[in-house]
Amino acid sequence: MRWVNVKPNRRSAILLGTLPLLVALVAYLFASAARHAANASDKVLPTPAAMVEAMRGLLFDADPLSGRIIFWADTAASLERLCLGLGICALSALLVGMVLGVLPAARATFGAFVTTIAVIPPIALLPVLFIAFGLGETAKVALIVIGVAPFLIRDLADHVAALPQEQLVKAQTLGASSWQLALRVALPQALPRLIAGLRLSLGPAWVYLISAEAIASDIGLGYRIFLVRRYLSMDIIIPYVAWISLLAIAMDIALMQLSRRAFAWAHQGQR
Asked: Can you list the domains of the chain with their CATH numbers?
């Protein structure tokens, strides 16, 4: 028996995927208990009870100044920025990526330009965005778009350009125009790739969002993390980081299910 031929079933895969998380959790609990045994006021590795106590007010009590429940207001603000940025990225990638992939002349003209933008570190442009767009929502969304859209455009354009030539020849033999080639041959095969690209972009998009919120914002998950770090409030930072991870996982699962339900043919042979 070779290990490369061992394929866990669905239940075994869930158990195997849960095991590293349980090991990490147990390791944290032991490390936290050891640090608090040595120093009862340790803040680096707070106990679960300390995190529950610190988060209770943020989860259930309204802020006396704004009247908002801080945790849920932070979550709503960050998700609004993230979803808006990713929506613009998806739309721009679909439009520009399709044009570059279907039309060789457009790819030759603008391909190098898109590549140049894609290799610029987005975080380095953050001061420029704040100067150009101010400290409002536009700059935060623009950072996500600049960081994610060029990658999606390049990936989608390469995927469309690599479609089997036989499909294009057959479609043109049947009288398809360039517009029909794009809509009826390239587009259906580009959409699953776009969703896969969005899934891969979730991590970088969260990084850009948190970076922007940390520098110039008065609400948001990233803003809250960087606000309480000056007080070494790990009992708030760790739950916030865990919540961001859960949100990212939920978005990834939602995109995966959307792709599998809408484009089942693209997932044949996958579990």
From this structure: 48-263 (1.10.3720.10)
Q: Over the stretch 104-117, which tens digit does the pLDDT of each residue have? A: 999 999 988 988 88
HSE, side-chain direction, 13 A CA sphere, residue 103: 15
pLDDT per position as a tens digit, 242-260: 999 999 999 999 999 999 9
Phi first, then psi, for residue 62 (nearest 5°) are: -75, 140
Place of tokens 């980081």: 241
Q: Nearest Cα to 208, choosing from 137, 129, 136, 140?
A: 140
Q: Give the DSSP letter of residue 44.
A: S
Six token digits for residue 96: 């520009």
Task: Give the separation between CA 27 and CA 24, rounded to whole angstroms.
Answer: 5
- Please tell me the pTM assigned to this model: 0.88
CA distances from 268 to 11, 50, 191, 230, 263 (A): 20, 47, 16, 50, 10
b/e burial code for range 154-171 (CB count within 10 A of at least 16 → b) = bbbbebbbebeeeeeeeb
Taken in order 178, 179, 182, 183, the sign of the CA dihedral is: negative
Q: For residues 45 and 33, what is the distance between their CA atoms, to the nearest angstrom? A: 9
* Amino acid at the residue 200: L
- Tokens for 129, please give them: 């965005």
**pLDDT tens figures, 146-157:** 999 999 999 999
